[in-house]
């Protein structure tokens, strides 16, 4: 519902609107990132205002260090209970190991567990259980954060997240995506803008995050990137590939709208129509491998794009498994075209059955096909395909349909092949722009057609072999060959039209390639037990090669890099590598043991089973008609000739102009390479495939698949590969009507099995080597930066004295000087010979965050673009860049020439060696022939001599009659001796036969015993290997936990040092406070002395005032007496009285001046009092803050002490490891040494914990001393305040007394004035 619809609905609703709020689970990780619980509201405000997640997730390596008492107690309870997963055929179950006092009399290799559901107690093998992870990690974003990495832990996380619609999960460097089987609202442009410009640590797991990571790596490293999606058929690879392309098109932007979202949707629609079909596993299965290349310019915008298609299953247009339909475009064209186009394509009546069309049985499929035709027509318009070009393709598609109706039969009384339905053949010929005779000649007599053409197209025919030498071809096979060729040429034409729309003349510098291929095909899982086809084997071979490439990049390349950089690292994978399977398919293996492990016979002679992906996916194959499928049909080569010789101008021009000048040896199998001007960056791939032309001349489909896959792998090896593992939750997840089957569980299924088929997902995890990948990623150092780049990038974080000045001669030494000043743990990095290696724990991301903060704080904005010099500089820089780019291209060309020269020399050397071997073999064969002839001649000479001797004896019979008896006796004696010798020889032969029979029986018995012993030893070795791998995995998990504990200890040490520094600072401040208090005490004493002096002066004044009052009273009495005797006094007495009055006025004025001075002193004392109160309050607040900080530090120190139980538990685990490894004979010695090393490390940890306890006690004592000093300071302050209050009270009393005296004096002055 759009925004306008919602507004209109609100307007019509009246006065009240009822809203039902439903949570969207899949958006939870986008709206709330980890680390927001720390209270930093800036990130949430940034997301609300800006709408971007940049710098929000980078706090992952910061939060989570401090834990509460409840969390610590819960973790302790979890460790004490020993939760485990019991693995069984149906999946895994939660259990808890019973303690030693609860389990008695257990045999070796057994343990007792209690199931959480049901409480049943079982005795199981140690190999059948795996350690469980804490509950708070059930829905973790990255499975490499799990303490115990095992299959059950990974399955539990995937199932928990999948139940909350969180289908994306990080598995170290790999992104795992489970097919949601229903639309989700996490693929929109708002989400794209949220992730735009983010780094990997800022983004939640999402397919957009993979695309953003590839784009960010391309921009920063200036190296080509690639995104490879692998998985089973129906797991959602094509959909996720389109999401990645959608993100790149929106986030990166395009130049002149070369690639927009509308064009991407149009390309996807056409590729689905022409290249997808429904299979037993997927309703929309891709039948080709697609490489989508996005080329970027120097500004990071898309300047061009291209699409290459490999291993297109073109034979599917005529040959398919029973019940599976043809490509979608046939049904969409037949169901959706309008009346005019239908009449033009002669499709008015479709009552006749076509050999190449499996009719759609369901009405909804026909309706869906009719609706899809409208999208196909819109896509053609969006991509700029002209109407005559589109009609040319529709004509070929309709002609294929009519050829299927026409059929092929043999004439009555002759062996000549012909069409079974001439009318349908006539319609097909009209659509192709040729005659029925020419079409028949091209299909049934290809050799005659070529000889009739002569040298008219000598250039094109020069590379075409004589098809008459191919032998007799069945008429139906010939028709199928023509149809295959027509559809392959049409598909090739469509790819060329798409690439024409995406091509441009802009300069590009880097590319991102997205690889999408058909998934692993196993039709038996969908109920089709007739066996997989040859095409399925080709698609499975592609998955094997991609998995082998993943194994090389993830394990082999990293191990080689560690060895090259002299970094000690040992790692052994727990599963077999895909190398043996790839080698078995590519070339014959001499060892029968390897073949027996990979291939086994099936029930029928024509069937066999191949164990793909390390034996996790056994696929049943049927070898029926494989020779026919493995050879290219010779008639298919003439399809291009028929189309280019068409009488229709649109067909002729289309297939002549879009076909490149090089003859397509791989036509129909590798399209999109030739004939496109936009594929300049695919030149390496073009070279890869043209070098294999000599091998493909044999017209072998298997060789074509191998050479194409070699080219794809070589292209990917030149890029940085980002892998996306798509996971199939159910066998039928790729089928469209899955919701009906999953609406409710069946009788034999529970709700958990409906959500996810755990055994199926377990096999996919094993085949993808996810457990080994996570272990390798966590134990190794996957992030690496060259020394020079690292120094230039992060040297700014070090202090000025640690930075290098001037030219750097030794980069390693410079980096060694910088590293101690960076906030990186020593265990988180290693220095190699030429680069720095970091663990995958966020160390490099933390440095990047610190660098960003540093740059953000030091940024100064200058109006550079307004300067004229800047414009001149940019022009000069552009010219320099062009020159540099030309130099780089020249260097690349020179490197390619040198590479070709090296390859040529190698080829010449191999050729000479082969020639020498050939000559040697010929000499041997000649020598053997000569020796045989010599022996034969010697036998003939011996026979001739014997014959001559017998003839001479006959001639001499007449002369030797006397000696006849002698020779006769000799002859008889010789005959008897010969018979005796013959009997003796027969007897000896019988004895020898009996002896040989006895020896044979004995050897057979010994062989049987040896084989049985070998099998037992092999089983025992496999069992020990499994135990060793499991122990190694647990040991590595324990080592990882120990490293985490070491990291936490180092952090606590840093905090302790920080605490000591703050304590020293607090002590210095306390000393300053003591000095201030002493100064205040001195001021207080001074004030007290001044107050005493004022009191004395006030007392004296009071006394003077009393005396003055007494005198005044006496004067008043005298005045009264004077008034009574006024007339009797003379002037002299009056003058004396006036003089006394003047003296009293002067004394009163002096007293008023003294009172003013006392009032000023009182005001100063009040200000001093206020200042003292403010300073005291400030001191109290600072001390309270220091005490709070000290209490927090003490709380963290107490937290560390609670790890003692964990150490005890870990010690028990080590003892268990020692007991297991002592039974492992000599193979476990290395593990014992490592356990001893861990024990030493544990002792060291205990000593460190003892030191921490001592430091904790010292900190407690310091805290107690500080509290006492604070109490003393507060008491002193209160005493000072009470003294000040007392002084002020006394001053107030003195002031009141003075005011009374002044009032009295003023009254007295008034009386005097009244008298005067």
From TrEMBL:
This is Unconventional myosin-XVIIIa-like. Belongs to the TRAFAC class myosin-kinesin ATPase superfamily. Myosin family. Residues 1123-1150, 1170-1188 have a biased composition (Basic and acidic residues). InterPro entries: Kinesin_motor_dom_sf, Myosin_head_motor_dom-like, MYSc_Myo18, P-loop_NTPase, SH3_Myo18a. Residues 138-852 form the Myosin motor domain. ATP binds at residues 231-238. SMART domains: MYSc. It comes from Priapulus caudatus. The gene is LOC106821115. The keyword Transmembrane helix does not apply. Gene3D superfamilies: 1.10.10.820, 1.20.5.4820, 1.20.58.530, Kinesin motor domain, Myosin VI head, motor domain, U50 subdomain. Residues 883-924 form a coiled coil. The keyword Magnesium does not apply. Residues 1158-1167 have a biased composition (Low complexity). Residues 1123-1201 are annotated as: Disordered. Keywords: Actin-binding, ATP-binding, Coiled coil, Motor protein, Myosin, Nucleotide-binding. Transmembrane segments: none annotated.
